Amino acid sequence: MALAPAFDDSIAVPTHVAIIMDGNGRWARARGLPRIAGHRQGAEAVRSTVRACSDLGISYLTIYAFSSENWKRPASEVDDLMGLLRLYIRRELVDLGREGVRIRFIGDRSRLDTDINRLISESEQSTMNNKGLIFTVALNYGGRQEILEAARVFAQNVRDGKHEAGDMDEQLFESYLQSKDMPDPDLLIRTSGEQRLSNFLLWQSAYTEFLFTATLWPDFTREHLEQAVHEYQRRERRYGGSGD
Ligand code: IPE
Ligand code: IPE
Ligand code: MG
User: Fold this and answer.
1) Residue 158 domain flag
2) Cα–Cα nearest to 153, from 173, 129, 169, 170
3) Is residue 165 part of a domain?
């Protein structure tokens, strides 16, 4: 990416930024390092991005840390990623808590190790009263799986007489999603040059602005974020209207 212009603070920043952090493996390969080295450096980029979002006045940051499809990777890489997650939560938690960040997780927890589930719950509980950035980590998350689970629970509720099938509308459906407490992302950034959603926030990104950058995730800095916000501020969002 070129040198970042300062972002325009006279125009609203996005309320919710979502990031598909991609390119850790390629970052490592380019340096002749194992993939885990890329993931480690990627965790540093998460650290600085969380701070940068808070500083810019962004209210929600959601990052894609591990997709439901990432289990297809070799067991050794999955283990490395889970190990890094354990370290990250333990190391960051105290700092994030002190900085007022509220941490949350979305995704299917049933396949995660017990100790990871415990760390996740602890970090959510210990930061739940914080008033700063709402930082959501998508872990073993898949957009289709989230939608299917919502449909399953709704069907069960209809069977139990809690709803009529005809009650279903967008608002009710959203109340069944894991993202129910947050607004849809305004801006979605994907690093590493790939231009796809890879099963991230399918329902929620219906009117999200997408920004793709060739920068690999471990190289992503505050300046890149500012540049992305600046680009977002120049976009015209129409939501199907005529733009007049
Ligand atoms: C993103 O980097 C991190 C995760 C998906 C967990 P990758 O590991 O996908 O890196 P590339 O795409 O192979 O470069
Ligand atoms: C998407 O990246 C998932 C995460 C960033 C966690 P991938 O690297 O797994 O996506 P594909 O396989 O290139 O679509
Ligand atoms: Mg990738």
Assistant:
1) no
2) 173
3) no
Global pTM exceeds 0.85: yes
Closest by Cα among 143, 216, 225 to 178:
143
Find where tokens 């500083």 sit.
55
Q: What is the DSSP letter of 16?
A: E
The number of the ligand 1 atom at minimal distance from the alpha carbon of 28 is 14
Does some domain include residue 153?
Answer: no
Choosing from 8, 22, 95, 129, the catalytic residue is: 22
Mutate which of 22, 140, 200, 220 for ligand 1 pocket (most atoms within 8 A of beta carbon): 22
Ligand 2 binding pocket mutation candidate from 19, 20, 21, 22 (most atoms within 8 A of CB): 22
Q: Is 209 helix (H, G, I), strand (E, B) or coil?
A: strand
Per-residue pLDDT of 217-242, as tens digits, reads: 999 999 999 999 999 999 999 999 99
Specify the ligand 2 atom closest to the Cα of 138. 6
Q: What is the pLDDT of residues 192-216, one digit of tens each?
A: 999 999 999 999 999 999 999 999 9
